[in-house]
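Structure tokens please, single chain.
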Amino acid sequence: MTGSVANAALLQLQGEILEDVAHGVPLASIADRICTNAERLAEGAICSILTVDAAGRLHPLSAPSLPDSYSSAIDGLQAGPLAGSCGTAAWYAEPVEAVDIGTDPRWASYRQFALDIGLRACWSSPIKTIDGRVVGTFAFYYREPRGPTTLEREIVAHCVHVCAIAITHDEAQARINQLAYYDALTGLPNRAEFQRLVQNALAALPSGSVLNIHYVDLDDFKAVNDSFGHRAGDQLLDQVARRLTAIVGDADVRVARMGGDEFALMQVCADGESDGHALASRIVAAIDEPFDIEEARVGVGASLGVAQTRAGTMPLSELFKRADLALYTAKREGGRKYHFFAPEMEALVQLRLSLKQDLRSALAGGEFRLAYQPIVALASSELVAVEALLRWRHPSQGEVPPAVFIPIVEEMGLIGPLGDWVLREACRAAAAWPQPIKVGVNLSPLQLRRPGLVQNVIEVLRETGLPPDRLDLEVTESALLARDAATRLALHDLHDHGVRLSLDDFGTGYSSLQLLRMFPFDRIKIDMSFVRDIGLDADSMAIVDAVIRLAGELGLRSAAEGVETASQFEWLLRHECSEGQGHWFSPPLSDAELRRLLERIGSRDTPILPNAARTIRADRETTPR
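Here you go.
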């Protein structure tokens, strides 16, 4: 086969493999395709692909022309300096050519396996990630003593590259799927998994037994974050998880992280009151002990809410609500204590009802506003976009967190009018800014399913005069899980009209790669839960690296959310992430603050440099209220 023909075939193979990766084809099938095509291009060669696990052990992935007995014999082989061609290549992270297995000393312990099936030579190349980590090996075996040809070297160079992409993405997807049920920071079950565990425990609850739910919320956690930074906050959360796991020490008690600084425990016991009080007391005492964080000793304490049930006596949602109400009571009384649910706590529900009533008039009363958080092009440090964030200042309650009022808004069916207001207000503001940056607006699942979404967006753009390509609609993976035809058609129509689309919180859903194939996204936003672990967790960094590379291969921009530190910024820049968003660049700004920042950038013809937050804080301190 001529070099030009082989090169064309290799380029076609690369494209097919990248498409397979994007479509979620199983890794083993991708490896089989690579081996089959490599053997077709390199006549007489026998192809093998192995993966290398974290402990340096080799595992067969594909070897369609080798006997299963041979693959089984090398499964689990430890990489080393005398571990055949593949084990040695993995050990040194360099290609290894054994032109005669019968005499090569690196094959001394393994040569009989190969010679018995007629293999006389082996050339193995390491499969490496962008940061140099060996994740596999790609080998050509020969039935006569010889080394690789020039054509075979070219074939392997192409195949090793696509193997690295496929294996890395498979690792990332496996990690993402694992993170759907377990917390990345602590390794504890997350909210979804905890709910499943409780449901199963209730179904199997022995007669006479009681199930207690303990909701745990850390006191003064925000002060630790503010004083020592988010890295210290993460260290604290991890230590809390370890203490909770250590003190329970019982198969009938499960610990979970529900999100933020909230934890939960499920306790199956014979005496709900006595056993519940004993466990709650141990939790409060354990968390009350100081923690060693960032070379400092800090104290946070914990508030607990406890609710009880027997099998089949109440819905799961009611049980969790009662635990939450008991927790709220403990927090309201100053924290560092626990409360069992009591019927009088139902009065707290009235607060939620009050918020419901107030929400009906909040929009008309001008209580909502938008804040805008800058998004920066990492390579140039230029401000290229902002994300519009909804805020509600209640006349008597003060600032109400979006996590509190958004679920109520959706429950009341008001997300349509409120979403329309956010879209119109963001477009109106953006059209008047002194720089033509993009504005990102989040679309909720309910908004996506509303009829007339496309017409509404187009009408808002026409009314405000904002060019379509300056509007970036951000959609979460969870909002697209239904994959209904109407949603797909609406997003394609919007994209055809020039509106930009971003897949938000990438990595937290269940079918990420399928979504990239089904919808016309322009940008992938990497969830902050992965970004915050850059420099701390190798798995999170592998996921971020894989997403950045996948976005690049698919011609999409990548944007990292929650960039908080210089080291995160520098790592993302080295790994060619397109954009970044977070407090390292700037906190959310009011429209007036953003205008001043844009005017300053325009007048000086300079980029927004980390950390713009310093300038913004100075402006706030000198601007009259």
